[in-house]
Amino acid sequence: MTFKARTYVCDCGATVTAWRWNTDPTPTCLCGRVMDEQGTVGVPAPGIIPDTIPGGIYIRHGLCHADGTPRRFDSMTEIRRAAAAKGLTLYGETPKAPTCDGHVDRSDR
Ligand SMILES: [Zn+2]
Fold it and tell me: How close is the Cα of 25 to the center of ligand 1, in Å?
């Protein structure tokens, strides 16, 4: 257990700093929402490879724009979907990217 000054943030923009144990319940904001501890928001668990590509990546061949200019992608899913739309696959991956609900889109067949 760790007792330290923790800063909590709310979606409404309010922040609160309080000395609390890590086992203490997360405080509720005056607006009624449960607050998140600052520093723990959006930090991926170790060992999980994030889908987003920080800063994006420009692809100059294959998945570039129709006029040949480089096309920017900000996530691996975006690249996978663009590749699937062109009938291409990423090395070592299955041919079709699954949709959000996990089903494989076969509408082009
Ligand atoms: Zn709030």
Answer: 16
Residue 51 Cα, ligand 1 centroid: separation in angstroms? Answer: 29
Distance from residue 56's CA to the centre of ligand 1 (Å)? 32
pLDDT tens-digit profile of 54-109?
889 999 988 888 898 999 999 988 988 888 888 887 777 766 555 666 666 555 55
Residue type, 109: R
Distance 87 CA to ligand 1 centre (A): 46
30: region left, alpha or beta (phi > 0 left; psi from -120 to 50 alpha): alpha
Q: How many CB atoms lie within 10 A of CB 8?
A: 21
Place of tokens 């760790």: 2
Please state the domain extents for the chain.
3-37, 45-103
How remote is the CA of residue 54 from the centroid of ligand 1, in Å? 29
Check residue 96 and give its pLDDT. Answer: 58
Work out the average pLDDT over 29-46: 77
